Amino acid sequence: MLKIEKLCKTFDHKKILNNIDLTVHKGEIAVLLGQSGVGKSTLLRVLNALETADTGTILLDGKALDLAKIPHEHTVGMVFQHFNLFEHLTVEQNITLALEKVMGKTDQESILIAQDLLQRYGLEGKNDMYVSQLSGGQKQRLAIARTLALKPKIVCLDEPTSALDPLLTTHVANTIQKLADEGYIVLVASHDVALLERLTCSIYLMQNGSIVESAKSDEFKHYKSKFPLISKFVAGEIE
Predict the structure, then answer these.
(1) How many CB atoms neighbour CB 63 within 10 A?
(2) Which of 112, 137, 159, 188 has its CA 20 to 30 A from that of 203?
(3) Which of 58, 17, 84, 30 is nearest to 202 (CA)?
(4) Distance CA 114, CA 106 (A)
């Protein structure tokens, strides 16, 4: 279980994260919903040690999560909005590089892990292709496969559908749902309300660095009136 308490972050005297409280269980998806600039991506970046929080605590399974060790222990994995894949490497090399350089795997061990992940994510036969030859959906799946190769407990996805054709949203949602089904703690930062229709998740609406309303997706679908702020956002009435 991931538990975040009273997390704050300030940039240039502006509160980007303001007393964030959030609990996400193993096998659960938390969707951080909101427009650009409300703090969604910053929260994911703090979890990945790409930004430093000013105050607050982060616990994983009841123990303090040492964010300074994230780059070495890979407890948290990040799938970036624009994927951040290595364009000069092949599909397979995008996965094997970190396995060899970071985790000390042999060439053969790395290749076997990469091949298994590529098969799981529908990229079999594309091992020797370059990233530029992949579609947006294939790049998304490769980015997820690369993240999972390092065996994180928490997977963060920043705007996972923003660079994709809307028709691919369902495929992306299915992939995210599968991560939860496999037992990962999943956090998704998104302004794409179409994802909510396709995921079984907890929804956290963010405004001005704060979580202003939350709901379980199933409850929201049946009782929208109980969640007026999320309802307004989904209807496009909140900027």
Answers:
(1) 7
(2) 137
(3) 30
(4) 12
- pLDDT at residue 203 tops 90: yes
CATH number reported for the structural domain that contains residue 58 in this entry: 3.40.50.300
The chain-wide mean pLDDT, for the chain, equals 93
Cα(47)–Cα(157) distance, rounded to whole angstroms? Answer: 12
The reply to whether 23 falls in a domain is yes
Question: Residue 72: what pLDDT?
Answer: 82
Q: Residue 116: CB partners within 8 Å, gap ≥ 6?
A: none
Residues 6+ apart with CB under 8 A from 103: 150
Residue 10 pLDDT exceeds 70: yes
Spatial contact of 206 and 40, defined as CB atoms under 8 Å apart: yes
Of 42, 52, 27, the closest CA to residue 185 belongs to 27
Structure confidence by residue, pLDDT tens digits, 82-136: 899 999 999 999 999 989 988 899 999 999 999 999 999 999 999 999 999 999 8
Count: domains in the chain: 1
Number of other CB atoms surrounding residue 128 within 10 Å: 10
Q: How far apart are CA 69 and CA 27, in angstroms?
A: 23
In-domain check, residue 114: no
Cβ atoms within 10 Å of 112's Cβ, excluding its own: 14
Tell me the pairing of strands 29-33 and 202-207: parallel
* 113 in a structural domain: no
pTM: 0.93
> CA 230 to CA 115: how far, in whole Å?
41
